[in-house]
Each structure stands twice: as C-alpha cells, then as structure tokens.
Amino acid sequence: MSEKTALVAMSGGVDSSVTALLLQEQGFTCSGVTMRLYHNEDVGLCQFHTCCSLKDIDDAQDVAFKLHIPFEVLDYTADFKRQVIAKFVKIYEQGGTPNPCIDCNCFMKFGHLWEAARKKQLNYVATGHYARLEFDQEQGLYVLKKALDGTKDQSYVLYMLNQEQMAHTLFPLGNLTKKEVREIAAGHGLVNARKHDSQDICFVPDGDYGKFLEEYTGKTYAQGDFLDISGKVVGQHRGAVRYTIGQRKKLGLALGKPVYVCEKDMAANTVMVGDEASLMSKGLVATEVNWLAGRAPTTAIEVQARTRYKQQEQKAMVYPLGDKSLRLEFAQQQRAVAPGQAVVLYQGDVVVAGGTITQVLR
To answer: Does the predicted TM-score (pTM) go above 0.85?
Structure first.
C-alpha cells in the first residue's frame, strides 16, 4: 500500500467533505465513499431530507467531483439492519436505552470501511469525526483524545477503536472548530458549506422511537401501569418501550409535582416514576469493555467518566473485572444512569476505555 492513501467516508455533510479536502492538501491520494446504510422507505422516511437520502449522496458526489477524486456508493443495508437496527430494537424491547451511533462506528465505519480500504489497497480510513489520534512514543501506543472544540467532541462514540484501527485511521478535524470547518468549505466553494448538521439518530430523525419501533416491527406495544416508588398505580403508559430513564416530559401524569422515569419492568410491562432523588446512583457495572491500550489495568484506577454523550465527565474509581467488564463507583452520585448506554472513561483528554452499562448501583 502507498503510505499516503486514504478512503474517505463522505456522508454528504460539510465535515466529511472538508476531511477529504484537507487530506488532499496534505498530499494524500483520496478515494471517496458513501455508505448506504438503509433505504429511507424501509424505515418510513422520505427520500430527500434525512441522512442517507438521495440529496446526501448527490452532495457527496458533487464534492468528490470538485476535488477530482474517485467516488462510489457501497450498499451495507443488510448488515446495518442486522447489526445496528436489530440491536436498537432488541435493547429497547429489553428495557434498555441503546446507542446505535456507537454500534454504527464499531461495525460499519471502522469495520466494513477498513475492509473496503484494504481491498482498494488504501492505507487509511478517514472520517469527519471531531476527535484526535496521536502516537505516544513513551508507551508505544496510539491514544484517542478529545477534540480541541469541546462543543463538537465525538470521542465518546469512538471508544471501541483498537490499536490496529487507530494506526490506520485519520481524524483531520480534531484540531479545528466547527466554524473553521465551515469557513474552509465556503472558501473552497463546497456545495454543503452551510448545510445543517444531522440531528438525533439517523434512521429516527424525528426522535419518536416508539413510533419507529411500532412501524418497523409491525408490533403494537401494550399499555400498562405507571407505578410510584411504593408500587401504587398512578396512571397508564402507552407502551414501556416509549420511555427512557430520566424522562420527565410527555408522561401524561398530573401528580402535583415533577416526576421522572426511574425504572422499567418489561416482563410486568410497568414503568416506575419518582422524584429526582430516585434517579440517583452511586455506580454501575459495564460489560463489552474495550481498553484502548489493548489490555485492562491490573488495579483500580481513577478516571473521569461520561454516561451520556454530552455529559460533563464525573470523577470515579474503576475496578476491572477481567478484561471485558468493570465496576465503577462515582465520587458523587449521578443522575439517570441508564442500562444500554455507554460509559466512557477518560484521564484528562485521553480516552481510556468504554463499555455498555448493564447494571445501575443504587
């Protein structure tokens, strides 16, 4: 493989387009690819106004043409349905809160894309993520760091990267702000310089997960009881899958005070609500843990932890339970920790590890 060659994941957005532009300016020979992850009509979406739409593909192709780089669309709809959407549905039906963006990165962007790069004899995969990759000479390891622009940092959804993947991945936007990226795109006349960022989960752009689950599976999720902390019935819910831990709005309850979703019992089809104190937890257990250094520490370590994408990191102690599991204890109790979500561990700007929350410790 030629060293300065890269397969650029081009979504049609401004970030991935500027990624291709910057690499080209750095002397890389680039090839662009858009991953077709689903057909909009299959998940009940229109063709023109969501991620993976025909307009996105047209925009990506337009930028590739302007930069004079090869471009193609690769169809991964079957794998995306099996590895991302099916898991999304399963976790919601089991009472958890899934994070499909992490699964997409794990299986699609840094799984299938690297396979495609090798077939094309390209040495790197490049994406428009806001994060930094560096090689630590002292440790002899690659490290994943937060982006310099804290408002756009995406290191939380990249914790699954291993050493081999990091050695062949490029994040050219890690040292830039979003404003700078848009200015670069505008200065080079890219068609998507002012294009809005995609929001929410790509295949559920309106954020109505309950509606998506019913339309996608063809199921009708049964109504059931809202319970208070004492177990008293205080109302009727519209299907337990529609509610997430910490949710306050759209509960349809008039109890004279704010209440939040605290727990769900999917077997009994009940949703427990309580005051904010009922949401607090002292720690968690996580499985499917990836230690970015390639191995778990042999003793407890002090970290800063995030249990949600935009959360400020919280001080915690981590106790490894073998290579793939851990127990974490917060320095101060935390609100609305949800099974199914990711916990990501940091030491300063460096991502140490991440895994899936399976148990909340009250």
So the answer is: yes
